[in-house]
């Protein structure tokens, strides 16, 4: 059962929203306003690996004479891909950036993370597999992440959701990182590839699930609906999303859609939460 927004008040809006029903994948046409796809960020949403990513990135940067504090990472850079973050750090320090140096730093970070995850495989978040498997029967699913494809595939390997996603867009596919909308627009384009006109979906028919401010802004700029999970940031810092849940364990696809029907893209976002077992 979906709880009320924080404060117990349903958000008000001048526009009356229609309920956004579950749409079976087999149905050919998607009418306006109906959610036809769910697009997931990966790190911090599906897999719990933000901390080891940061530690490996910090080491790779330090070896290149750059400093990135956890405060700055979570405050300004989380959600951006490593190329964008490294470029900004180099430009801030030197006034210019060398693409070859960016590649050396990001490749070094990837090597460090590969070595770490070989012995400490990052776990999926509680409830992530259940949510995604339930959604797969009703939606087309995609991942849109600034992470590398190999890292995502390694994290999913052998899991119940390894084959759950129709589309996966990663750092290798999109040279422009979040908060630019390019990665989410590319995910929508690929979901529509080889589809007839009746099966095509628009950005407004995609529900994005994100954990970062850069990701929320990217999805909103792409014209998509946005639900945030507070796995990385506290609830109050995610109010640019339309809805905020504690995590994928805190909802089902149906409760997410039910909650979305109470929120409007033009209203102040609201935080929803289903009661925990001990509440």
Characterize this entry briefly.
The protein has 279 residues and is of the alpha/beta class. The chain has helices at residues 50-63, 70-77, 82-94, 99-119, 128-136, 149-156, 182-192, 213-221, 253-262; strands at 37-40, 140-144, 167-169, 206-210, 225-229, 243-245, 270-271.
Written description of the protein model:
There is one protein chain. The chain has 279 residues and is α/β, with parallel strands linked by helices. It has helices spanning 50-63, 70-77, 82-94, 99-119, 128-136, 149-156, 182-192, 213-221, 253-262; strands spanning 37-40, 140-144, 167-169, 206-210, 225-229, 243-245, 270-271. A seven-stranded parallel beta sheet has the order 3-2-1-4-5-6-7, with helices on both faces. It is globular and about 50 Å long. The chain starts with 36 loop residues before the first strand and ends in an 8-residue tail after the last strand. Residues 1-32 and 266-279 have low confidence and may be disordered.
Question: How would you write the strand order of the largest sheet?
Answer: 3-2-1-4-5-6-7
What value does the Rg take, in angstroms?
19 Å
H/I helix tally: 9
CATH superfamily of the largest domain: HAD superfamily/HAD-like
Estimated share of beta-strand residues? 5-15%
Overall residue-averaged pLDDT value: 84
CATH class of the largest domain: Alpha Beta
The sequence of SSEs as H and E is EHHHHHEHEHEHEEHE
- CATH topology of the largest domain: the name is Rossmann fold
Structural class, from secondary structure content? Answer: alpha/beta
Return the CATH architecture of the largest domain. 3-Layer(aba) Sandwich
Number of strands: 7
Shape: globular
Uncertain runs are: 1-32, 266-279
């Amino acid at each position: 059962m979906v709880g009320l927004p924080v404060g117990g008040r349903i958000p008000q809006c001048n526009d009356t929203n229609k309920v956004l029903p579950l749409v079976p994948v087999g149905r050919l046409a998607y009418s306006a306003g109906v959610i036809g796809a769910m697009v997931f960020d990966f790190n911090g949403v599906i897999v719990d690996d933000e901390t080891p990513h940061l530690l490996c990135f910090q080491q790779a940067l330090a070896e290149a004479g750059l400093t990135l504090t956890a405060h700055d990472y979570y405050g300004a850079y989380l959600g951006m891909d490593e190329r964008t973050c490294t470029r900004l750090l180099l430009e801030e320090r030197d006034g210019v950036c060398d693409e070859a140096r960016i590649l050396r730093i990001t490749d070094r970070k990837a090597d460090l993370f590969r070595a770490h995850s070989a012995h400490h495989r990052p776990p999926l978040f509680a409830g992530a597999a259940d949510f995604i498997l339930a959604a797969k029967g009703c939606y087309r699913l995609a991942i849109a992440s600034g992470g590398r494809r190999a890292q995502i595939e390694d994290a999913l390997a052998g899991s119940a959701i390894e084959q759950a996603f129709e589309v996966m867009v990663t750092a290798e596919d999109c040279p422009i990182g979040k908060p630019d909308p390019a990665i989410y627009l590319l995910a929508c384009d690929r979901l529509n590839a080889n589809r007839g006109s009746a099966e095509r979906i628009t950005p407004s028919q995609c529900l994005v699930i994100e954990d970062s401010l850069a990701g929320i802004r990217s999805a909103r700029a792409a014209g998509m609906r946005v639900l945030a999970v507070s796995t990385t940031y506290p609830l109050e810092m995610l109010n640019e999303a339309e809805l905020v849940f504690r995590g994928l364990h805190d909802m089902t696809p149906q409760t997410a859609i039910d909650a979305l029907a109470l929120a409007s893209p033009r209203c102040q976002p609201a935080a929803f939460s289903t009661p925990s077992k001990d509440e």
